[in-house]
Design brief:
single chain, 101 residues, alpha+beta, Alpha-Beta Plaits, four-stranded antiparallel sheet, 36% helix, globular
Length: 101
């Protein structure tokens, strides 16, 4: 199994609505991928609540059966749509993909 973890720090004026509101919107968009993209075993997204300042604003943790499923997810049109939305709001991004189990 493959785990895909991504964290974003958002721009202050992200989505034209501020970091917190934008983060909540992006979490809803990410969680919507669960029902739209085949091959996702699990997907969780969340907004940081405890560490303002240096912390990332949004995290995504998703699991896939194998690397091919992760690659297909990356290329799926719905993922691309959400990726573009996040790219416009993000100041920085960190990602780790690794095998588990």
């Amino acid at each position: 199994m493959v785990r895909h973890v991504v964290m974003w720090r958002l721009k202050e004026d992200a989505c034209g609505m501020g970091r917190r509101a934008c983060a909540e919107k992006l979490v809803r968009e990410l969680e919507g991928l669960r029902d739209l993209v085949p091959g996702i075993l699990s997907l969780e997204a969340g907004v940081d609540r405890n560490c303002p300042g240096d912390a990332h604003d949004v995290v995504l943790v998703s699991d896939f059966p194998d690397w091919a499923a992760l690659d297909a997810y990356q290329r799926h049109p719905e993922h691309e749509r959400v990726r573009r939305l996040i790219a416009g709001a993000a100041a920085s991004r960190a990602v780790v993909d690794y095998e588990i189990g």
